[in-house]
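Data availability excerpt. The first of two example chains:
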Amino acid sequence: MKEVLIVKHAVGGRTFIHSETDSLRYDVLPDGEGWRITISTPKSAAIEELLKWKHELNVFLFQEFDDQPTRKIWFYVKEGPVGYEDHLEQLTIKARSRIDYVPDEFDM
C-alpha cells in the first residue's frame, strides 16, 4: 500500500504539505476520541503559513492499493490543537473526526 498525506488550507485550497513532494516522515494514530497526526519537518515558510491558518485546515490521507480502489480519509481538524515543536522539528495536528470513502464509488 502507498500512502500520500496532504495538508491544505480549507478556504483557499493552498497545499502546505504533500508527502509525495516534501521530504518528511509522518504518523497518524488514534488519540482519545480523535486522531493525532505528527509530521517531522523542518520549520519553513510553508509551516509558518500553515500555523497562521491552523483553524482552517483540511488533512487528507490517500491510501493506494494494488488490488482495490484508492481510499481517501478526510480528517476534520475543526478547533483541534495544531502546533509546532521547534526542538523536535515536529508539527502536530489533532483531528476530532474523520470520514473514510472511496472516490470511485461516487458518480459525478
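And the second chain:
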Amino acid sequence: MYLPRYGGHNRTVAHHELRTVGVEEELLLVDPVSGAPRAVSGAVIRYAKDQKGITLSGKEPEALETELQREQLETGTAPSASLADLADEVRRGRRAASEAAAGVGAAVVALATLPATVHPSITPSLRYRRMANAYAQTAEEQLTCGCHVHVNVESPEEGVAVLDRIRPWLPPLLALSANSPFWQGRDTGYESWRQQVWGRWPSSGPTELFESVKGYRAAVEAMLDTGALLDEGMIYFDARLSRHYPTVEIRIADVCLHADDTVLVAALVRALVDTAAQAWRAGIPPDRVRTDLLKLAVWRASRSGLREDLVHPVTRHPVPARAVLEALIDHLTPALTASGDLATVRRLLRRLLERGNGARWQRQVYARTHDLTAIVSEAIAQTSGTPEEP
C-alpha cells in the first residue's frame, strides 16, 4: 500500500501551528438555459488549458479535473492555514470552473445530484471504463458530487489516530452539507440522496477502528485481496489517509451550494482533526462505537438532514439536529478557540441554520416555481455568487 512521504517539501505541522486545509469540490456541468446535463468535461478542461487566464491557486489549469462521468468536473484548492484564504480559494476555483465551462457553452452548479432526469456518460479513460464494466449500474448511475476536505497530519500514525477518533462526529457534517433531495425528476424524501447512491460502492461508508498504521494497511490490503475493488483509489471510506498528500481526507459531505458552507465544513473538519490528535497525544482512547451504529447515524443524517432528529455522537440516542450541532461545537470549542476560528464558525453556522442547507434551498425553489429546471438555473448563480453579507 502506498503512503505519502511526510516531511521534506510537505512540511509537517508543529503543535503550535495551524494545520493547513484544502478542499476538492465536484460540480455538475449543465446547459445554462435548459439546465440539462452537458457531457463536456473533456472540452472544458481543454478550453481551460488553452486560456492562460483561467487558473486555480496560481497553478496550471490542470487543477480542474475530470471525474467518473463526463457531466461533472472537480476543482481543488491550495492548502490554506486561514479560513479567509480558504474562502478565496474555494471561490477562485468555482469561478475558474465557471469560466472554463462558459467557454464551451456550459455552466457549473454546486448540486450534489441533478434534479431532472439524467442518463450520464462515463468519461472515456481506461480506468473509468474498467469501473463501468466491473460495477455496471452502480457506476452508470453515479452522477453525484461530494466535497472532500484534506487536513495535514504530521505522520501516518497521527493520521490513523485521527481517523479512529473522528468517526462518531462525521454524520453531522453530512446533515449540514446535505444538498441532494431530488433524483431522476422526483423528490426522494431524503436530504442527501447522494449518500444513498454513493453507498452502493462496496468500499464506501464508516470504518472499524484501525488501531495503528499496520492495522490500516492490513485493512486496505485485505480489501484489495478480495478482488472486489479495482485498485486502492477505490477505498471510499468516509475518512481515509490520502494516497497523494500527507493528509487525512474526509469525504462524507455533499458538495455545498454556498461557498460559505464549504468553508464551514472545512473549519469543522480541521477542528475535528486537531481535537482527535490532541486526544491521541494525551493517551485518550477512541470511542469504540460499533460500525453498524455509525451506519445508522449516517443514514439518519442522509434522510432528514437538519429537519428532524439526528443520532447523538455520544449517547447514540435521537435528539434534535440543533442539539447535535451544539454538541459538535462544544466538542470542538478548545480547538476552534486555539485556531481563532470559533467566532467565524459560529457566524457561518448561524447563517446556515437561518437559510437552511442546500436541500432546503432546493425544495424552497421548487415550492415556489414547481419547476425542477428553475432549481438548476438559480443554482448556477448561487454557485459562483459573491460572499454573503456578515
